[in-house]
Write a structure and sequence with these properties.
mainly alpha
Length: 74
């Protein structure tokens, strides 16, 4: 299974990434429609997934920091 497929499945299961799934699926369609070389399509899809992965990681980091701040304040 390719990394692109595996990460896509992972984010579809993640409730915090549902908005991103819709966005990168639209990007995937554009990549497939606008790029002619398979390698360019795959690299573009991988880059979109990397951005999604970074966003999800930052969101989880923010949630953890907020929980820690609330714990310290109580």
């Amino acid at each position: 299974m390719s990394t692109i497929v595996r990460l896509g499945q992972k984010y579809r299961r993640d409730g915090n990434a549902t908005a991103l799934v819709a966005v990168y699926e639209k990007l995937f369609e554009r990549f497939e429609g606008n790029l002619t070389e398979e390698q360019d399509v795959l690299l573009s899809k991988a880059a979109a997934l990397m951005v999604s992965k970074y966003w999800v990681e930052q969101k989880y980091r923010f949630i953890a920091l907020r929980a820690e701040m609330l714990r310290r304040l109580s």
